[in-house]
Task: structure prediction
Amino acid sequence: MIAAFHAEVRKIVSTRLWWITLICVFVLAAGYAALPATVGVLETGAGSTAFRDPGTVRSIYNGGNPLSRTLALVVGIMALAGEYRHRTISSTYLATPRRYRLLLAKAASLFLFGLIYGAASVLAGVLVAIPYVLGNDGSFFLHRGDTWRSLVLGVVSIALWTMIGMGLGILIQNLVVALLVGIGFTFLVEPLVSYVLFRRGWDAALNLLPSGATNAMLDVTSPVLFASAQPMAWWGGTAVLAAWCLLPAVVGAVVTVRRDVL
Amino acid sequence: MAPVNQPRRAWVDPADAEPPHAELPSGALTSRSEPIRVERLTKRYGDVIAIRNLSFTVQPGRVTGFLGPNGAGKTTTLRAMVGLVTPTTGRARFGEHAYAELAHPQQTVGCVLDSHVHPARSGRNHLRVLAATAEADDSRVDELLDLVGLSEVAHRPAGGYSLGMRGRLALAAALLGDPAYLIMDEPANGLDPEGIRWLRTFIRRFAASGRTVLVASHLLSEVEATADDIVVIKAGRLLVQTQIAELDFDVGSCLVRVSNHARARAALRELGVEIELLEDDQGDYLRVSTSDTAAVGTVLFNAKLAVFELTRERADLEERFFQMLEAS
Result:
């Protein structure tokens, strides 16, 4: 089990994908974090009071989350579907013939790298927040427990999105289809569904979407996110997002993992 | 991406390079004397039966050739033996255990079933990934890269490797755990003649150290030169399992090339044999319907004929193989 985990870590670090993704996460997260910060400045002009609102500051810290989690999703999808694509799955299963054990090792290694991507995303948000907060007489709110919880769960949420991707890759072994489904869902289907639910005020349904669950974890509310007016508690959001990881993974594990490899 | 250049120094002589197997894990020594037993293996895909009730044994210390025409079920059988394909019924055991039950699969069975690599991963890193579960260290990886002659290209992305280079990488990967069993599916694919000669020597030495080798091949001449035993299947069924030494290669005729074929014909009539005058690229010759070259030689000597060639004609394995297929 430890050896299989070690092999999976070597797999990840032996191609360029992981650090190219890491750089993308950091740069894009910084750009996305600057958005709510700039909006905060524009809304109230000079001497903005936005940076004295803990919710706004949290949303800057986690501003990169929507983009970072999509990249994390892609990395997760590549983990298993990529092995089918490049047909390396034979040697992988020969090395670890107990397939569920292999999936656990893969999930553990991906979760670790998901945490690294999450840390890069949150770090970028925090770095972006510094000039805005200092320049507008705001606060970092580091004395508040909910700020720290939002930072930590921001990192964890990205790791969970990596798991959702891995589950998708288990369920849909065709890499291209899995990527289309994953990216199509996060960029197209989910925003549309969120918009409809948001307009109708169906908060309970909104809370159950992966984005709604993530927002609850981060404890951010922003009109541009079509966020629920009555979000769940952080632990409820974490549980819902974890369920989104398990859903495709369990279905895939039952339906596809035992298939013959030719 | 264009294939990267072949390394100048390819294929270390197996005689020099044999000690990658010098240190055998003590646990593996006991399994080394155990054969592979394929037991009543059946694989059904819907209405199609790929393998039917197939049983055979692969003995240690010997090379077993696994033969059959395309679509006979060789690849399915090999993959079912190691759990990549789940058999409908039956199983294969390496010593006592099925592949998935082995505590250390890579240290027990080396598999060269295909040569797929992630194109962005270097050959060395491909081996390092598999080395983690085979419990092989980096020096073992480098040793094997050297053995198969890939040291110079080991740091390049494997996407640029030629088919032959990927085949050699697959062999190195199979050997990482210093296994007691080696099963190979068409390992000569893409290899140059030098590589095929190297592989043949390697396989012979591997088996000579008491280990067990099963090689599926459609290159019958290759198997004839390497194998001790053959298992022949057709349409998923066992046709024959036999030792190559037991195959009767004598076809009951010999080839005679002499200075005067008309006089030879007359002289040989006393043996009561049938004689045909034939021609090949070296000219005329006689085919005499006996494999007793001593009797033929004596008659020709007594007739004072100069003998240029006198050979017992032998069926090659290829011919035997097709006879088996036709008889079934």
Notes: Chain B touches chain A at residues 75-76, 79, 82-86, 99-100, 102, 105-106, 111, 113-114, 116-122, 125-126, 128-130, 132-135, 173 (CB under 8 Å).
